[in-house]
TrEMBL record:
Protein name: VWFA domain-containing protein
Residues of the signal peptide: 1-21
Organism: Nannocystis exedens
InterPro entries tied to this protein: VWF_A, vWFA_dom_sf
This protein's UniProt keywords: Signal
Residue intervals of the VWFA domain: 277-385
Amino acid sequence: MPAASRSFAVAAALVLGPVVAAGPARADSLHIDVQSNPERNFTPVQELSYEAIVAGVDGYKVDLRLRVALHNASKRRQDAVLSLALPRDAELVGLAVARDGTWSPGRAAAVAVEPAHRASGTVFARALAPAVAGDLPAAEVVVFNLDPETTIQIELQLKVPPRLRADRWELELPGRGDDRWGLAPERRVVVQGARPGDAPRFWLDDRASDGAAFLLSRPEDRSVVSWPYKHVSKDRSILDGHLELLPDPTPPGVTARSGRFRAYLRLGAAPPPRPDHVVVVLDRSRSTAPDLHRDAFAALTGLFDELPAQLTFDAISFARTARPLLEGDEFPSVRDRGARDRVAAALDAGAREQGTDLAAALALAGRRIAARGARRPLVVVITDGMLPAGIGAQQIGHVFSDSLTKSTRPELLFIVDEPMMLRGGITPQHPIAGVATALGARISLESLAQHARRTGGEPPEGLTEALLAAPAVLSDLELQLPRRATLDEPAPGGLVAGNVLVVRGSYTGAPPTIGVRGKLAGVRTSRTLRAVASRPPPAALVASFGLSDLDRAAADGFTRPPWFNLNQQRVARLGITWAGRGNGDERGFLDEKIFRNYLGIRVFPRARACFNKALARDQQLGGKVVFEIEVGKGEVMLAKVDTAGLNHREPGFEACLLEAAWALEIPAGRLDDQIYRLRYPVVFNPPAGGRPAMEDDPLGPGTVELLLGLPNR
């Protein structure tokens, strides 16, 4: 095969391969000049390692270093272009390069329009803004003339807003894709201590470092790194905010009169409650993880060990119905290990069930609190957050209040443990946030497995603060801006603990201030954000690992090499887009066809059996019924049957139909975190001298309603 043909074949494999829908997905990518490297199946430049280093937190941003090692294995100098997905809202602020262990800092550079070559031994980097709002930012790194048999390290210095979950900072690292041609086979994650030599405790997903200097993750996975957050002050405002200005460039000595701004909002820790009685309410519906009850009880055991011994506790589980896990009026001490063991045994003995009746669980908790006569009760609800919309938040609140009779209204805390929510947080529109708002409850998104696996190295009060210091939902959120300032997009109407809300906009005239107002547990709260000017990130950066004139390189500016064509640029950009939209995640989404199939094999045959049994009692029974079913993660959370269309009432038949509705189960939806309401009409025709018949109406518009649509991030 001629050399030119071989070059084209390699180029096609590199450029066209990721575009094929059936092929593996690429996020990060490494490109070389295939015209100067005709060897087939040979990778002259390879990424030997990839590290994500958390170097500390500066106010509202994490100092994150992405460090890669590139090696030129060929006998000639090589160019390379490396495209990297960055964490959401990341800013590229610095660049450094090392050769033979000696680091050289970079400096700001211009951006050239036309592709060109640059001096040997230079590395350029620039940030690429998301092509579509909500996608991930990216970094494009260009290496010019890497010497043969040479290895260099490149460090991208980033500022990234983290999430704050209880007593931990969290940062999500994007996946690198399934097709990582020339890229490192693993990702190393490091969290640096405050002083050299420190080995701080941190977590990567659900794995603790336990003294290790680093943890490894599969590069194709999106991973969450977390590390301890120490509260600076016990009495600081729960609503915390920061306003950052980016003035437009002006000549020296001239004050900018316009620019951009970013406002950061988050909820800090609230003073923890001081209860005299704790009621644990545990969700045992099928949408929860199989080990949730074990992780929850292990974490609560640690919590009980930190609470005063005179406190008592109670335990309730719920799915379609609620039941106490302790007999009669038994309210043992939180230190009573025998009672703890009985609760754990009851949870292990019981299977997860269909249904999520939180109202029944809170009503049972209220009655038992009244029987206990507690003066400062605390109800801790542990759930995956999947609640049916058919039972409204106000209805749940009324049922709970009625059950308390004259007892003190307890403090409520929702602990939500759902891996799919951990990535994007709890939105204010989510049903669990709506219920928490209506009840004035605290809410926290946690991975209880992490708390359950703690082994030393932390102060004894750490777990209490982590679980009990969660704030309530900030509702009725309003941002008050001066006329000269405008937002790029409207702000949401609320904020849930753990999330950082970043709003962007532009201004003219004097630097603006922003007023923030909202309600926490029904109480008005406000804060004024005053502007702090900061320098905008450089347009590009350049560093040298050779003898290049850095000043000349900075003046020449960032450019792409001429061989990096439009197709390669498009493929690299498309890979970053896939990385930000959940590419590689095994997510299942339900549609009318899937619902139709499972209704036909799970509900319709049971409804037919109910009809045949009822006809043995009443030959004239017939008419139309409508099954109303709410489904979350493939599980029936709520089921009702509208029997108004029957020609007359038949209680036994109606009860049988309700059980048929509860029999629906859709395993294909276990990774679908949307909530759906189904309306499934069925017509029953009485015999009238012949055989009984049934007809189900086809599912169409309006019969499958999406109640909760969450972004696929």
